[in-house]
Amino acid sequence: MRGFFWIFTVVTVLAAASAAHAQKPEDVLIIANGTVPIDTLSVDELREIFMKRRSYWDSKLRIVPINAPDSAPIREEFRNRVLGMTQTEEGRFWQDNKIRTGTTKPTEFSTVLKAVFKLRGSVGYIYRKDFRDSLTSLKILTVLPAAP
Predict the structure, then answer these.
(1) C or N terminus of the chain, fewer CB within 10 Å?
(2) Residue range 123-129: average pLDDT?
(3) 84-107 burial code (b ≥16 CB/10 A, e <16)
(4) pTM assigned to the model
């Protein structure tokens, strides 16, 4: 019985440590194609871009927001931290938007890094560990906190 208790305790501690590690947010980078004429965005501006309320970087270059797949953990993190929505709320938002204005949600790519690398004016998000310095036509945008 004593051996069983010890094994149960070790498994419980490992499970708790694993859960704590899984909940630790990873560093998320906002990346942009090299054609994007800015280096800094506020969280509010980023939200406007991904809710498609802002369409152009300047008078000529169209903004192309790129989302990770809906089921990806990074999408959930981005949705919560930037959009302030749950998956259900985001779905309703886009359904209502399509009916009212005809606007569709941003395109989803399984490889956001590759899409942003190739598409002029594009912006997306990836985990820091996935960024490659060798991709010189990409840049990391600085995101400023939301206005109080």
Answers:
(1) C
(2) 94
(3) eeeeeebeeebeebeeeeeeebbe
(4) 0.78
